[in-house]
């Protein structure tokens, strides 16, 4: 899902980006994304 949303052509690119992110950082980013899309985050 993330690969498609972020338009990464290869799953390896998506994994390289998010494998380095902490759980807290990923949750914060997803909350911001959800808010930007009108969600309740």
Automatic annotation (TrEMBL):
Q: Which InterPro entries does the record associate with it?
A: Integrase-like_cat_sf
* Protein name from the UniProt record: Integrase
């Amino acid at each position: 899902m993330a690969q498609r949303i972020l338009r990464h052509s290869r799953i390896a690119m998506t994994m390289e980006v998010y494998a380095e992110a902490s759980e807290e950082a990923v949750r914060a980013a997803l909350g911001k994304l959800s808010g930007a899309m009108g969600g309740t985050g």
